[in-house]
């Protein structure tokens, strides 16, 4: 195996596959990156068994020569070391050559690294996925579906299925739902080019890594869903994730549809007031802040910490309908929900101090956030 | 006590004094910041007993009103909480008022914080320093004297005096020396306005914090050295540090003055080559890289790690005089020394593979770095 490659292009590709390489794997070969060289270009693969990322660097791209192939072949190089070496090489031209099966020589300028590699045959095969039934989704839409739901997955493993986001595709629309049973995030989108129905749970960690790789453009990502795996395909990147097993709870029945109090409020003002109130809420175990209606035109956000002090702040409402209210909730959950909505005009609807309440955007009815209040004395 | 202050000016001052506040103090009052309000302005004080920083915010500055004093007084507020609150306040106008001796009210826009403060009388007094015998040093010179020496102080406490930088003022020149007994950094400067001689050891930590506060301008900093304390004074900041007790070793005799091999080399090229070589040096305990003369015109930097591989790189010399040489040293020490010199043209002088070697700048004879080599097989 021998090829000469443009360092910056190799670094870009490495940045992607490194996201799948874990320092904590129990399978030694997975601390490495597999490099496959054919006459068409160079393929890099990284995996932690849950996530597998493969990037392809074409020999030629946009009439530019990325790679000069001298001899094809495959090898596995220790991922972190290889990544750091490439990062620090002195010139933008890198020659990589394998002799005696595993002796790898990396040359750049007057610098030569000799690394002991591993046999590519020891590297696990890619998940075997039939790619016939794929459907497209614009990358920017996919990114916002992830961003607006994934933060609400459970972080503990007591119910593993809740550490993922439930993707339900039905009647040509996609519903993403995440809940840790104290709050819930839901996002809907029309999916006109999908033929089949699906109901799967994608690990939150996979979606977070996918979000980092995708660019915020409307370039379509091809999605293939099978029984145990999901595959996201962009031009030069294949992103595989295993699916979570188990039945995701039916969340529709958790969402209230009758309300006693409805407020229209500036979401950014509310977010900042809760951020301030949370400073004094750190002393209490659940980071609790209080919301209280003062009139039909204003609410008060407050919090206190017995030994440190208290904070209170009045916020004007655009509208308030229904009953007066005093309610307590987690500042963290409320801030994350408001950030996910990310709009100036937010509707918050309550069904009393002890029942879950919901947040929606005035402009966009595809997003819904639900928070379970906290009982205080 | 009551005053109204411009938030941004308060934040600047807080940024400075926070550098002296430690989370780990055993003296509870020192987790706080003392605020003293007089008709002239507001003074903030933070301290961890080793370092004390005091900043003054004048009521008026450059014909701009920073503070409106309503009632003078003093109070101690929990430092982190106060800092975070000020950072997150909604408007640039902040009113701070104390009622019932310790009830502190911070108002900004529609937000009101009520904090329980501590009595300012419990806060320790500033070190009592006679400021008659001060001398000036430009801030940028002071910063480079710190930057070029402080990294070489000992990090372990086995010989506490080595955790500081030795400042010797004699014959109207200042010599700063730091050593951890494996390497040494020395920097000299002319000090024409100093009247007395001094020989003190300033804690490395204090100098690092001072360096963060000073701006890189030629504005003079007034320095006062007493038996137990040193004080650095700028326009609105007083920076006190305790001095370390104990005799600093005489380092002059460690510095060789006869050499067997002298090289002139591009310091940045050498730094980058050692940075690359150090990637493979992590496996070995002392992060060892090797330097070997190849000819009168070039050297090789190399390193190896038995299970991972090896690296070698040739570097051209501007000049090489004297004997051929093979020597091993810590990559970290060498990189820090080259960064401190920070010049393209560096002179490296050796007295054989087992003896300390020195690095100097070709352009500037005030800086000297010494490194003790590492014995390898």
UniProtKB/TrEMBL annotation, chains A, B:
Location in or out of the cell: Cytoplasm
Matching SUPFAM superfamilies: DNA clamp
One Pfam family from the record: DNA_pol3_beta_2
Molecular functions (GO terms): 3'-5' exonuclease activity; DNA binding; DNA-directed DNA polymerase activity
Sequence intervals crossing the membrane: none
Ranges where the DNA polymerase III beta sliding clamp central domain occurs: 138-250
Domain DNA polymerase III beta sliding clamp C-terminal span(s) in chain numbering: 253-375
Keywords: Cytoplasm, DNA replication, DNA-binding, DNA-directed DNA polymerase, Nucleotidyltransferase, Transferase
One Gene Ontology CC term in the entry: DNA polymerase III complex
Protein's UniProt keywords contain DNA-binding: yes
Keyword Chaperone assigned: no
Database matches in NCBIfam families: dnan
Known partners and oligomeric status: Forms a ring-shaped head-to-tail homodimer around DNA.
Protein family per UniProt: Belongs to the beta sliding clamp family.
Function: Confers DNA tethering and processivity to DNA polymerases and other proteins. Acts as a clamp, forming a ring around DNA (a reaction catalyzed by the clamp-loading complex) which diffuses in an ATP-independent manner freely and bidirectionally along dsDNA. Initially characterized for its ability to contact the catalytic subunit of DNA polymerase III (Pol III), a complex, multichain enzyme responsible for most of the replicative synthesis in bacteria; Pol III exhibits 3'-5' exonuclease proofreading activity.
Protein name: Beta sliding clamp
Source organism of this protein record: Lysinibacillus alkalisoli
Name of the gene: dnaN
């Amino acid at each position: 195996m021998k090829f000469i490659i443009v360092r910056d292009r190799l670094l870009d590709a490495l940045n992607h596959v490194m996201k799948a390489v874990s320092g904590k794997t129990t399978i030694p070969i997975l601390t490495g990156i597999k490099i496959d060289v054919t006459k068409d270009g160079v393929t890099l693969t990284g995996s932690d068994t849950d996530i597998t990322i493969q990037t392809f660097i074409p020999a030629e791209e946009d009439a530019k020569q990325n790679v000069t192939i001298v001899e094809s072949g495959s090898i596995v190089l220790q991922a972190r070391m290889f990544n750091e070496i490439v990062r620090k090489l002195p010139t933008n031209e890198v020659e990589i050559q394998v002799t005696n099966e595993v002796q790898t020589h990396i040359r750049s300028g007057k610098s030569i690294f000799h690394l002991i590699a591993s046999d590519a045959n020891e590297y696990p095969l890619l998940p075997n996925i039939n790619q016939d039934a794929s459907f497209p989704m614009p990358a920017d839409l996919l990114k916002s579906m992830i961003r607006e739901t994934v933060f609400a997955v459970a972080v503990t493993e007591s119910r593993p299925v809740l550490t993922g986001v439930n993707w339900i595709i039905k009647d040509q629309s996609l519903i993403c739902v995440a809940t840790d049973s104290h709050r819930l995030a839901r996002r809907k989108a029309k999916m006109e080019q999908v033929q089949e129905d699906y109901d799967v749970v994608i690990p939150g960690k996979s979606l977070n890594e996918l979000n980092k790789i995708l660019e915020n453009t409307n370039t379509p990502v091809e999605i293939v869903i099978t029984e145990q795996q999901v595959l996201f395909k962009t031009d030069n990147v294949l992103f595989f994730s295993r699916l979570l097993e188990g039945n995701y709870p039916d969340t529709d029945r958790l969402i209230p549809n009758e309300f006693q109090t409805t407020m229209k409020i500036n979401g950014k003002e509310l977010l900042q007031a809760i951020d301030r109130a949370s400073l004094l809420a750190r002393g209490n175990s659940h980071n609790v802040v209080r919301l209280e209606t003062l009139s039909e035109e204003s609410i008060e956000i407050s919090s206190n910490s017995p030994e440190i002090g208290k904070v209170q702040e009045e916020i004007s409402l655009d509208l308030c309908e229904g009953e007066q209210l005093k309610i307590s909730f987690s500042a963290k959950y409320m801030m994350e929900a408001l950030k996910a909505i990310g709009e100036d005009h937010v509707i918050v609807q309550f069904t009393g101090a002890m029942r879950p309440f919901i947040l929606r955007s005035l402009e966009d009815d595809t997003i819904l956030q639900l928070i379970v209040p906290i009982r205080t004395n």
